[in-house]
Each structure stands twice: as structure tokens, then as C-alpha cells.
Amino acid sequence: MIIATLPLALLLVEMMIQSLTPSVHVDPLLAKNVLWWFGHPVVYLLLFPAVAIYYLLVPRYAGRQLVAGNVIAVAWAIAVAANVLVWAHHIYIDYPQGSPQAALNVAMQPMTFSLTVVSALSLYSLFFTMYRSRFQWNAAATALFLGLVSWLLSGLSGVINATIAFDAVVHNTLWIVGHFHQMALLNIGLVIIGATYAWLPELIGKPLYSEAMAKWHVWLTFLLATANSAVWLYQGLLGAPRRYAVLPHEYDGATRAAIPITIALGGAQLLFAWNIVATLRGTGVDRAVRLAAKPRKRLSDAAAEALIVLLAIGLAIPAGVVGWVIGHYAGSPRTRTVTVSAARPTPSTTPTSTPSTTTSTTPALGGGNPAAGKAVFTSAGCSGCHTLKAAGASGTVGPNLDQARPSLALVIDRVTHGKGAMPSFAGQLSQQQIKDLAAFVVASR
Ligand code: HEC
Ligand SMILES: [Cu+2]
User: Fold this and answer.
1) Kind and range of the H or E run holding 213
2) Does residue 331 surpass a pLDDT of 90?
3) Per-residue DSSP letter, 59
4) Handedness of CA 145, 49, 176, 269 (dihedral sign)
5) What is the rounded radius of gyration, in angstroms, for the C-alpha atoms of the chain?
6) Which protein residue has the closest C-alpha to ligand 1 atom 31?
7) Rounded to two decimals, what is the model's pTM?
8) What's the pLDDT band for 338 if we cut at 50, 70, 90?
9) Which of 125, 243, 306, 325, CA to CA, is 20 to 30 A from 8?
10) Are 38 and 8 in contact (CB under 8 A)?
11) Ordered DSSP codes for 351-392
């Protein structure tokens, strides 16, 4: 952690100096390499303690020794060293022409794949430690098991991310957000939850308030957070960009469906808070005594808890479906109108066919106003992904528009329909705004 922090702090200081003295120059590509050289091990620092907890608790609940423990120990020792050598898989898409970065990035692919072997071996040994054991399915053990399942699921989306060809499609989209939330929240998060249920009672010498409540919490967290990540993965594959406060509207349907899921996920954490507070206060002791005296009461307690949770799910799922339906159908008619009429602008040859509503429109630019287009270019967020000198834009996600020199028709088509990582703006921009944009891009070259 300390090793990683110092160079990052240095980078920050350099950037502060740069902002005050523009003549000082921090090479952006070097800065990104430095950030991830130290940043990737920081990501792994989250994983290592979680892995250690698996190795401590899974054998305990399985009642037997870890399968292939020695092999795993050697594998992780190698992984600790090797994980420093995969930093550039975070900047796969950054390779300016003529720089050695492209070759470096390609080399990161096999390096990254080799690291997944260690994770795969770990999952193999942990699952086989549980397999055919008398596994004790209490809340802590369930959390660990579901954490392992999540490690497997998010590991799979990690393996495909490790190829440059696939990353070119999902780079800077919500797919990435879905992937790392599943890894961090569900693998590492469930381990923390499991460890709390396992060790808190031992630490304070009081029983857990409610094992049943803990199990509900663990299952709900797993199911809801998995669904939540799935929505991000899905939106990402459709091209929804990440780091947007407001997404292009075509993604609204899925976002609305995610809202009740997220709220229910937050609500499920109340079960955790309640259980922990009650455990700390020692309510579990009284409860254990009471339950021992009246064994029948236990059933109704568990049933009441279950009823509350079922009610929450029962409300959340229909709300999600309704949200999705509203979101899905609300935006669609507008999208289609734009599509049809914007599809065939024929610049320069047919000045009469262009509607001249604005005085400053030029027929050669398909009825668009370049000055208005410039403002749209900035406000619609094109600058985040594209380089275009005339707009002062230096994004690197999509093609450099100064070099690509797209035709009027291509700009209108891409902005209207999107392609790959480029979102469609049809639901967000009017037909005239798209024409203005196209006029601006074409006039700027
Ligand atoms: C989230 C990032 C992103 C945003 C925002 C974005 N684009 Fe793109 N754009 C891309 C990507 C990626 C491509 C390449 C798509 C492909 O061909 O697969 C692209 C392609 C294009 C092309 C085609 C270039 C060529 O020569 O093939 C044009 C023109 C274009 N974008 C214009 C725009 C305009 C105008 C905006 C603003 C309304 C915009 N883009 C917003 C990512 C983006
Ligand atoms: Cu990494």
C-alpha cells in the first residue's frame, strides 16, 4: 500500500504543478502506466485477505484439510510476484501510433491469462474441500460459498476482458462496472460478511442474535447484487458508457429496472445491521434462553422474518418489471422518426431538397448549422470519446475525427444509431441537432 501510494502522490503533485505552470508537462501515457503499475497490485491487495479467510474458514466448516494446499501456496506466491507485471491490461486501448505501447499491451494478454490459472486452482481446491464433506451450512459458511460462486462468475467476465479484441468493444462501458462490482462487492464483500458472522460471536463471547436472519441477509445480498451487476453487464454490451451522470436515454429502461433492485439490496443490509447490533447488545443470549424454554416460538420468529423479506421481494420484482416496461416503451417512437429521415442526406448536389428553416444553414452541410453543432458536440459529451481540434476535444475512446474525416452521412448515421462502444444519441438529440453536429464535424476538417 505504501509502495503504491508514494508514486501516485508524486504524480498528483506533478499535476498540481502543471495546472499552475502550463509549461511543465506530464506525459499522459506515462502517467497512466505509472498509475496502473502501482494500481493493479492495490486491486490485488483487496483480494489477498479475502483469499486468506477462505483458506481459514472453508476447511473449518468442511471439517477436513484443504485439498491440494501445497500447490495452492506455491501458486499464490507466484501470483504475488506476477501480478505486478500485468498493469497495462488497464490501458489496452491506449496506444498512440508509433509508441511501443501497442506491443506492451499485447504482451499483457498472456500474462493476464496466466494469473487466472491461480484463481482457477484456488476455486478448484476450495470447492473440492467442500465437495462430499459434511459441510456445515450456517450463515457464515453460506456467505463464503456464495462468495466463491461470485468469484467464479466475475472471474469469467474478467477472463474475456483480458483480450484486447473484446476490450475494444466493452472499454469505458458499464460492462466494466458490472465486472468489478461483482468481484469486489460479491466476492470480497461476502467474505467480509461471512467472517463477521463467523468471528464476531467468538470475539465478544456472545451468540449471534439470529442465524436465520443472517442467512436471509446473505442470500438476498447475493441474489440482488448479482442481478444489479447483470444489468450493468447488459447495458455495457449495448454500449452504455460508464462515468456518465446521465446516460443516453436508450438505456433508461434497464436503469429503471435496476432501481428497485438496488433499493432492495440496500434494504437487505438492514437485516445485517439489526443482527449485528442485537448481537453486540447481547440480545442473542436472552433469545437463546427464551427459545430453549419455548421451542415452538422459534418457528414463528423465523416465519415473521421470512414474511417481511418475501414482502420486500414481492414488491421489488413487480416494480422492476413495471419500471422496465415504462422505460422501454416511453422513448421508442421518437427514436424511429429520427432514424428514417436522417438516413440519406445528400450534400451539395440537391440544395432544393433541404429544408431551410434557419438562415445560416448551408446546403453543402445538409441543412445543419456548424456553429450550433459545435455547442451540441460539447454538451452531448462527444469530446469525452473523440479527438476533434475545432472543438478542443482530445478523447481517445473512439476514432480521432480529425484523422477519420467522416462524411456527413456517416456522422449522422453513427450519432443516430451508434455502433459498438459509441452510444446512439437518437433519443437525446433532435434531428436538427444531429444535422448541426454533422455539419460542424464535416466543416471542421
Ligand atoms: C462513449 C464514447 C463515445 C461517445 C460519447 C461518442 N462516440 Fe463517436 N464513436 C465512438 C466509437 C468507439 C466509435 C467507433 C465505432 C465503430 O466503428 O465501431 C465512434 C465512431 C464515431 C464516428 C465514425 C468515425 C469513423 O470514421 O468511423 C463518428 C462520426 C462519431 N463517432 C461521431 C460522434 C459524435 C458527433 C459524438 C457526439 C454526439 C460521438 N461520436 C460520441 C465512441 C463515442
Ligand atoms: Cu488489473
Assistant:
1) helix 211-237
2) no
3) H
4) positive
5) 27
6) 414
7) 0.61
8) very low
9) 243
10) yes
11) GGGS---STT--GGGTT--HHHHHHHHHHTTGGGT-EEGGGT
Cβ-based neighbours of 20, under 8 Å, separated by 6 or more: none
Element (H, E) at 278: helix 252-280
| pLDDT tens-place string over residues 229-271 | 999 999 999 999 999 988 999 999 999 999 999 999 999 999 9
415 Cα–ligand 2 center, Å = 32
State the closest ligand 1 atom to the C-alpha of 384, by its place in the atom list counted from 1: 5
Note the ligand closest to the C-alpha atom of 384.
1
Residue nearest ligand 1's atom 21 by CA: 414
The grid cell for 370 is 456548424
**445 in helix, strand or coil?**
coil
In angstroms, the CA 109 to CA 88 distance is 9
Atom 37 of ligand 1: nearest residue by CA position: 382
Q: How far is ligand 1, taken at its centre, from the CA of residue 415, in Å?
A: 7
CA distances from 389 to 9, 23, 88, 402, 408 (A): 31, 20, 28, 7, 18
If you take atom 7 of ligand 1, which residue's CA is the nearest one? Answer: 422
Helices 252-280, 211-237: inter-axial angle, 10-degree rounding: 160
Q: Which pLDDT score, from 0 to 100, does residue 337 have? A: 36
In this prediction, residues 64-83 reach a mean pLDDT of: 89
Q: Which domains does the chain have, with CATH numbers?
A: 1-136 (no CATH), 363-443 (1.10.760.10)
Please report which ligand is nearest the Cα atom of 424.
Answer: 1
- Beta-bridged to residue 394, according to DSSP, are 387
CA of 438, closest atom in ligand 1: 35
Ligand 2 centroid vs 38 CA: distance in angstroms?
10
CA of 398 to the centre of ligand 1 (A): 5
Backbone angles phi, psi at 419, to 5 degrees: -165, 130
